[in-house]
Amino acid sequence: MPTTNPEQNKAIVLEAFDTLFNKRDYVAAERFWSPQYIQHSSHIEPGREGLFNLIKGIPPTLRYEAGTIVAEGDFVIVHGRFSGFGASVNWIAADILRIEDGILVEHWDVIQDEATEEQSKSKAPMFGDSFPAK
User: Does this model's pTM top 0.85?
Assistant: First the structure.
């Protein structure tokens, strides 16, 4: 029987992402990520430690902005933007998380470089309502 509902799960994911990616509070972040966290991303080492170590190695200018977020049962998908992490372009990501008893236990993602207005054939921004500043 789940201990959280989809709305609570969305709030957990948003707080977890802000705590880790924007605030860089690793001690507080431990309460959101299971010690047995399963990481399906090919660019991140296994487990909670793999994720935390990745973030520790990224410039402190890293920022995460959440956009659309949906939840069903124990799954949450959040569409967001990662910027300031040392790459020449931002990343737009759809992060898929499974939550168990209020803790993030599993993660998958789909990541794409953010297109500029000049690069976009649709002329619609990939995130939010405007293109990133040059």
Answer: yes
